[in-house]
Amino acid sequence: MSPEDMTKAATHPRTLVFVSPFKDICARKFVGRLKLGKATVRKHPKVQHRDWRGQPSRSLCSKVRRVATPARYSDWRVDCRPDAAGLDPEAMKEADALLHHKVVSGEIPGVISMVFRHGVLGHLDCFGFADVERQVAMRPDTIVRLYSMTKCIVSVTLGTCLEEGLLDLDDEVSKYIPAFAALKVSTEEGLVAAQRPLTVLHLLTHTSGIGYGPMLGEEPGCEGEERYKELILRAGLGRKCKSSEAVCTLENWCDELAKIPLQHEPGTQWLYGYGHDVVGRIIEVVTGKRLDIVIRDRVTAPLNMVDTGFEIPAAKWSRAAGMYRLHTEESEGCVAPKKLVRIDAPTVGSNEWISGNTSPIFAGGGSVDAMTGGMVSTAKDYSRFLLMLLQKGELDGTRVLRSETVDLLRSNLLPRATGREDVWTFDSPGVGLGLLGSVSVGHPDLDEALRPGEYGWGGMAGTAWTNDPHEDFMLLSFSLVAFDLSTEEVLRAGVRKSIADFRKCQESKGVGFATLGRLHHFPKGLQTCWAADEVIPCTVQA
To answer: Which domain does 204 fall in, by range?
Structure first.
């Protein structure tokens, strides 16, 4: 089914967009964020889930095969409680109406959005296709590409190393990777030796002078991207490791990266780049283990993130999402309507993220070759990671980080990295940067859509999240279109309006809304509900 045919079938689509960190035109929009929190779920006995006709259905998979129209989240029978979460349902419906239009119009194939607040699941919606070609419906256990949202997991892993005293943020990178000892900086006068040492903090705050190369097979758009083109091509050869030019390990990749001149002196400017990928190698050095193993042992396994890793097993192909771009075709001077084009391989035997096809380089944050980079995950898994952060490092009685370490990770560290108070993420005043992503701080020119204290980040494949400790909510959203720019802004505004309208309604009734105590355990029923092959009806309880 084509995207056009899909949109005709969709009656209640829902959408969420990602803002690209790689394009200058995305710079201001990328810094906007969303939010969420928590809930408990129990199995609802003897309740039979049914298909769109009301007929008994054994599983979601069987329903998808029978029906072309994408399923809504209500088909999974998990009840959200917007009132208990302090969200106005009508305001969320208004936001949904705006977001649904993107799926109806064919701008995105499908979307997942999730909001927790005050420990209660207030909003969860899946709509559209995860894979248009196979007509696979979006669902909470759909496996998506994280790209730059991998950085957040790498930073938490680094946080555990900081707690053990294995390294310090102010350590010089050359202490762990000797190739970075003799760095060159590109200036108008030519190449000069770096005057400042490159530190771990510079890498984590994108003040290192290391940039990014062209993404998704594009040609370099500037001289800064051009310098990384050869390394990207060599990393691509690393998939087969049959060429002497191939780069086949993270260690080898970092050594080659160190030969490329920095675009500015360390600690002087903000420039989005490969910093977290280098941090991944530092983690390997200080722990003596491969990055994937360290992340598994310290983060994903303790949090029971069962579908999160650097590859998708072939057995899970049925839940793997496709990846798309919105292209405009021109012919004879006329601009044709934009069309969704798939950019990853559509079969299990050739898809770039399937086990056996993946890059041997464990990228810690971005795309190190022409297509792939970073980890994969699901809404179910990543929400557990974000709830752990919102709860100051602990989830289900398992502590991943100390409370003070989480405070450090979510703080604006640009002043510490640069020694200046006027350095901002994407040059947006009031938008600082912590080790987990952007951090909004009080500033007269802060975008009115942002709130001081909120922090979050996004990924190139249409993924985005935000935690707001003040409002006690976490928001996570997945769409599947690269460089999508606007949906996150619509959804974030909808959540904020929903909170405000709920408060107004309570005040008009003379009822105060007391903040609910945070639940101590992530709902185990939610895990069962989102099992890969069986859909178990659930209800949410405060």
So the answer is: 155-300
